[in-house]
Design a protein that fits this description.
Blueprint: H1 2-13, H2 28-43, H3 63-66, H4 140-143, H5 161-164, H6 174-204, H7 207-223, H8 294-297, H9 302-317, H10 328-357, H11 360-363, H12 368-372, E1 380-381, E2 387-389, E3 416-418, E4 421-423, H13 438-480, H14 500-509
Antiparallel strand pairs: 1-2, 3-4
Helix pairs in contact: 13-14
Biased composition (Basic and acidic residues): 21-42, 494-515
Subcellular location: Nucleus
Subunit structure: Associated with the spliceosome.
């Protein structure tokens, strides 16, 4: 009875909105039609399924994602609403225009006590236990005098990722207008003073001074780029426009010279590309219009300039008063004399070493290109192996004779290798100065190898049989040392004819009592 009551109570508890009945099983025909419709939707021949919000469902989405579980709502159609962010679970953030209010809010101070205010000072923004004012002998609740103003409570702002990192959030653009007005007043005052000075010059009759002031006025006008036209658009010959760091529009940007992502790195912040963008294209750096920023550092007089500067620093450390910018002529003459003395010293040092130890014949040896047949010439090949640019490197010859066939052999020595031995491929002979035997030699070599393998196999079988016989004799010796009552019963484990190797091992290990040397075998 109790179980029946429980079973009757369960459906009543779950009949609010959702029924826990399982969906009816589909027939074979309905299942086939459903699968065909899914295939047509995936191919694009049938319109996509629409969810309860009127949005199309991608037919390639798996069923376990788009379908609603039957125990939640079996009558619900397939939808992706449960896969989207739920509005009730999303955090609410303040907009980018919200910010903390600055300054104290100015409003009229209350003249009488208000209900719910602090009993000590009379402010509405806190209670008596949170009051920071000195406790009065008689609070404002009872006196109604000296009511304190309400504090300004800042709002609790909650920003998203972008709002927290917005550097201009809370900035008031009207503050910048004060700076603009200040500069405009200064500019107006300058123009007023200039006009007064011009009137005085005209009254005195100094025309040259007027022209000079007019030119200086043009110089001041150049400083303000907002008051002039764009470069190239102003045709007034009286104005002088100087605009720096302008790039010619016909120039190719550095990052567009080689679109390969693995080429030279371009730093967008400093607009620098130190390496050569045409490094892996095979172009000569002297032939391209731009070879990287580092190319300038190692071309022209840059290297000699750096060497001269280094010499100036070293000479200054040793007591010579020279400077690259202050005394360039003196430094150049001193550097030239230093190089001449340095070369003479090296030549004298070399001659003294050769005179003392000898070895001049090694210095007169031919170059390495002739000795090792190696050069540093640039050679470029195509994908098919043909030479495109440069001269192909010659094949290095060995000091040994190559392709020499002796004793009627058709192959060279070393063309055949087997089991760690070199030989001739034509006859499989491993003797270097032997005569070629042709196919007959191959057959003999095969038969010899087979006989060698057979002998090795027989030796292996004999060794196994001897080990087994020794183990059997040792087992018998151990059993004979036991008491008769403790010896185990003999049982025949296998009934087979012994092999030739086992019989040979038995004959070799069998003891003969009539042998006069039998007593010495165990010693």
């Amino acid at each position: 009875m109790a179980s029946g009551a429980v079973s009757n109570a369960l459906p009543a508890a779950g009949t609010n909105d959702v029924s826990l009945e399982e969906p009816k099983k589909m027939t074979r025909e309905d299942w086939r039609k459903k699968k065909e419709l899914e295939e047509q939707r995936k191919l694009g021949n049938a319109p996509a399924e629409v969810d309860e919000e009127g949005k199309d469902i991608n037919p390639h989405i798996p069923q376990y994602i788009s379908s609603v579980p039957w125990y939640i709502d079996p009558s619900k159609r397939p939808t992706l609403k449960h896969q989207r962010p739920q509005p009730e679970k999303q955090k609410q953030y303040n907009s980018s225009g919200d910010w903390y209010k600055r300054g104290v809010q100015e409003h009229a101070v209350a003249t009488r006590y208000r209900k719910g205010a602090c009993e000590n000072c009379g402010a509405l923004t806190h209670k008596k236990k949170d009051c920071m004012e000195r406790p009065r002998k008689v609070g404002a609740k009872y006196t109604g005098m000296n009511i304190a103003p309400d504090e300004h409570v800042q709002p609790q702002l909650m920003f998203d990722y972008d709002g927290k990192r917005d550097r201009w959030n809370g900035y008031n653009p009207e503050e910048h207008m004060k700076i603009v007005e200040e500069y405009s007043k200064v500019d107006l005052a300058k123009r007023t003073l200039k006009a007064q000075k011009l009137q005085e010059e005209l009254a005195s009759g100094k025309l040259e001074q007027v022209e000079r002031d007019h030119n200086s006025e043009d110089e001041d006008e150049d400083k303000y780029a907002d008051d002039i036209d764009m470069p190239g658009q102003n045709f007034d010959s009286k104005r002088r426009i100087t605009v720096r760091n302008l790039r010619i529009r016909e120039d190719i940007a550095k990052y567009l010279r080689n679109l390969d992502p693995n080429s030279a790195y371009y730093d967008p912040k400093t607009r620098a590309m130190r390496e050569n963008p045409y490094a892996n294209t095979g172009k000569n750096p002297d032939e391209v219009g731009y070879a990287g920023d580092n190319f300038v550092r190692y071309t022209g007089d840059t290297i000699s300039m750096a060497q001269t500067q280094l010499f100036a620093w070293e000479a200054y450390d040793k007591g010579s008063e020279v400077h690259l910018q202050a005394d360039p002529t003196k430094l150049e003459l001193l550097y030239k004399s230093f190089k001449v003395k340095k070369e003479d010293f090296k030549a004298q040092q070399k001659e003294s070493i050769l005179e003392k130890y000898g070895g001049q014949e090694h210095l007169d040896a031919p170059p390495a290109e002739l000795l090792l047949a190696q050069t540093e010439d640039y050679v470029e090949y195509s994908r098919h192996g043909t030479v495109i640019k440069g001269q192909e490197k010659a094949i290095a010859c060995s000091k040994y004779e190559e392709d020499v066939k002796i004793n009627n052999h058709t192959c060279i020595w070393g063309s055949y290798w087997k089991e760690g031995k070199w030989g001739y491929k034509c006859c499989h002979s491993f003797v270097k100065y032997s005569y070629c035997t042709g196919e007959a030699g191959k057959e003999i070599a095969v038969s010899i190898l087979l006989s060698i393998h057979v002998e090795r196999a027989k030796k292996h079988l004999y060794s196994l049989a001897l080990n087994a016989e020794e183990a059997r004799l040792l087992h018998i010796k151990e059993i004979m040392q036991l008491d008769e009552r403790k010896r185990p019963y003999n049982s025949q484990y296998e009934a087979r004819e012994p092999t030739e190797e086992e019989m040979e091992a038995y004959r070799m290990k069998r003891q003969r009592p009539d042998d006069p040397m039998a007593s010495f075998l165990g010693q």
